[in-house]
Write a structure and sequence with these properties.
Elements lengths: L9 H28 L2 H29 L3 H8 L6 H34 L9 H10 L1 H21 L1 H28 L4 H9 L8 H15 L5 H6 L8 H29 L10 H10 L5 H32 L6 H20 L9 E2 L2 E2 H28 L2 H9 L5 H27 L4
Antiparallel strand pairs: 1-2
Membrane topology: Multi-pass membrane protein
Keywords: Membrane, Transmembrane, Transmembrane helix, Transport
Subcellular location: Membrane
């Protein structure tokens, strides 16, 4: 990536990075992961991982990218030439590729729901949202077609570049999403029986927490912050040398935690009020939200608006994933961006077709009881992202000079020494040990 390619402002970077972090990870995946993970206890563990492990890792990726001003693979090459460490950047590119292959399927679901909302099909008498969702995702033509359309727009924006494409889109999408979320929460909390959902979400019962749920909470934290895939290495390489990394990281983590919290408050009160199960799975959001909106004045209109913003959130994350692939494959040659964006996007689409068909014609194709969609999700969230995070936690404090780390972390803040001491302790000792312990516990070794 050319060194002249930069965000126009810190706000542009924060909104783009937050858009990457928030996206479907916080809005779509967090509610059903919390529901299947036991509610409040899962949320507490998720918060601990996000603040004490995720944020130090986020800063580590920022430092790698901003210090080199290069995309993921080239950054590691510049820092430790002639070693195997550039494969950490390639692991990140592969992770983004796999994530986008099944993530775009969910983006297609949103498009299909948006069409049904606009046409009025969602509100026809006798419609049960659970049945409607099951029928929709089982239709191979609709799901694959919608996935293709979703990726076409992602390709278009990424092909336009960082400033004119990604940054400009995020400046409008993210603030609008927050405003509508607030309105949705107000309505959800006023439903009969809503308090039971609040208790489930915010009152932890650690007796229900399993070692597998802890692994899922760690994976969800990394998925939500987009750490472990070197996404933020590439995004921070576009950041000015004058900007504070610690302030940017704090803003992104705060926004991610806030939107996850808002998603829980919007979903779980409605789940319990409507008598649904919080363990519904990936379709939870598509079943609960129409039920909530159908009970409020002008609900049809508000739901269409929410779906549009939900689509925006999905797109902001998809932009970052395709950008990492394109940045690595172009190797800084801007004249190749458009062609590479088209080629990479179409390749992602082809690889993602089995995931799109996992709820219909390929629903019987399973491995260890998981569909292709579930395998891709599990591999990324619980293996590839934690592995990438572990390697970044090893690489940054052990392979980069302490002077570079301290300099990058001290820019733009009056508490540079304090920040550096705390961060260095967590990234060198706490983060890698915690990740290894979680893995060993899940595998039964300890």
């Amino acid at each position: 990536m050319s060194k002249h390619t930069q965000w126009t402002s810190r706000l542009g970077f924060i909104l783009a990075a937050a858009g990457s972090a928030i996206g479907l990870g916080a809005i779509w995946k967090f509610p059903y992961m919390t529901g299947t993970g036991g509610g409040g206890a899962f949320f507490v563990v998720f918060l601990l991982f996000t603040v004490f492990i995720g944020m130090p890792l986020l800063l580590a990726e920022f430092i790698i990218g901003r210090s080199t001003q290069k995309e993921a693979v080239s950054a590691y090459k510049a820092l430790v030439p002639g070693t195997a460490w550039p494969w950490l950047g390639r692991l990140g590119v592969l992770t983004c590729f796999i994530v986008l292959s099944f993530y775009s399927v969910v983006g297609g679901w949103i498009l299909l729901y948006l069409l049904r909302g606009v046409s009025g099909q969602l509100w026809e008498s006798g419609v049960t949202y659970e049945r409607l969702f099951e029928q929709m995702i089982a239709n191979p033509y609709e799901t694959v077609g919608a996935q293709f359309v979703f990726l076409l727009y992602v390709i278009y924006v990424v092909a336009r570049g960082v400033q004119d494409g990604i940054e400009k889109a995020n400046k409008y999408m993210m603030p609008a999403l927050f405003l509508l979320f607030i309105a949705l929460i107000i309505r959800a909390l006023t439903l009969d029986g809503a308090w039971e959902g609040v208790v489930f979400f915010l009152k932890p019962d650690f007796s229900e927490l399993t070692s597998e749920a802890v692994l899922y909470a760690m994976g969800q934290s990394f998925f939500s912050l987009t750490v472990g895939a070197s996404v933020m290495v590439t995004y921070s390489s576009y950041l000015s040398k004058r900007e504070s990394l610690t302030k940017s990281a704090t803003s992104i983590v705060s926004l991610t935690v806030l939107i996850s919290f808002l998603a829980g408050l919007a979903i779980f009160p409605a789940v319990f009020s409507l008598g649904l199960e919080p363990t519904e799975g990936p379709g939870l959001l598509f079943i609960v939200l129409p039920s909530v909106f159908s009970k409020i004045p002008f609900g049809e209109l508000f739901f269409v608006i929410f779906l549009l913003l939900f689509l925006f959130a999905a797109l902001t994350s998809a932009f970052s994933m395709l950008e990492i692939i394109v940045a690595a494959w172009t190797g800084g040659r801007q004249e190749k961006r458009k062609k590479v964006a088209v080629f990479a996007g179409l390749l992602v689409f082809l690889v993602g077709i089995p995931s799109a068909l996992s709820f219909g014609v390929m629903s019987d194709v399973t491995w260890f009881g998981k569909t292709v969609f579930d395998i891709a999700d599990y591999a990324v969230s619980n293996v590839m992202l934690p592995l990438g995070a572990l390697l970044i936690a090893i690489f940054t404090p052990w392979k980069m000079s302490k002077e570079t780390l301290k300099r990058e972390l001290s820019i733009g803040t009056s508490h540079g020494e304090t920040w550096f001491a705390a961060w260095f302790l967590f990234i060198r000792y706490v983060a890698p040990v915690a990740i290894v312990i979680v893995f060993l516990d899940v595998t039964g070794i300890i």
